[in-house]
Amino acid sequence: MDPVLLEEAIQDRIEKTGKTPKAIVPVALYGMPYKVDEIMAVADRYGIPVIEDAAEGFGSRYDGRMLGTFGKYGVLSFNGNKMITTSGGGALICPDGEAKQEIMFYATQAREAYPYYQHERIGYNYRMSNICAGIGRGQMTVADAHVAHHKHTCDLYRELLKDVRGITLHENPSGRFDSNYWLNTIVLDPLLRVKGQEDAYQATVQGAVGGAGGVTHVAVNAHTDCEPNANVEAMRMGLDAMGIESRPLWKPMHKQPVYKDCPAYVNGVSESLFKVGLCLPSGPYVTDRDIEYIVGGIRGLIER
């Protein structure tokens, strides 16, 4: 989240609607902390609560303090691919016991204190099951080890990729940022030649990643109006042929067709990164030998 664009967005919404946004939701993308001080300063100026999306930032810190503890609330994810998992669901970090009680009231159907169902406010059933909670308690015993492993994985990627021209690994912008490196991401120079890039996007995608239960479908067209560069897609396809799964970065929300009519406050950074970025395997079971194999695959796909 760009703090400058954030303030522009707030001012624009006030001017056009007469209303102040209800919340600011910064996202710890790939585990990287957001610009906490600047975002909180904007929030304070307008009296807007901050709800931290630390779903990918479990274990990340800013100025030594855990993400999820700066805003009014902090959101964590325990999905299957996160730093720790309960198979699904997540947690909400609350500022105090009173806030927790209010949240739990709404998360347990907002039932009033009667022996029958009485609802004076709208509630939902967002409770985590006891089984999932039990798994989570077990996962907490390995949380520090998982974070340490992800950081080690990043260090090894950095060492093995340091002499590869045209590829840059993301890193903490300063000593104040301490990412958990939940996902390690690289950017490819647009001029970098990758084997097979002439054939990228020549056919519609077959069996693209789908939802629960392995649901897949065929894409209607090979192209969209915003997509990774051909060399990035060629790298993804080449690694896939070697049994290495990689993924493009998150596509910017304002480029998703379902949000095409929503206001967006952008400066081009998210689009430019989406076009050049690729996520590499980074999980707790990725070994040093795996990383050596992955980097070897990357090197082999670059045209000399």
TrEMBL record:
Its EC number is 2.6.1.87. GO terms for biological process: polysaccharide biosynthetic process. Keywords: Aminotransferase, Pyridoxal phosphate, Transferase. One of its GO terms (molecular function) is UDP-4-amino-4-deoxy-L-arabinose aminotransferase. PANTHER family: DTDP-4-AMINO-4,6-DIDEOXYGALACTOSE TRANSAMINASE, TRANSAMINASE. Belongs to the DegT/DnrJ/EryC1 family. This is UDP-4-amino-4-deoxy-L-arabinose--oxoglutarate aminotransferase. The gene is arnB_2.
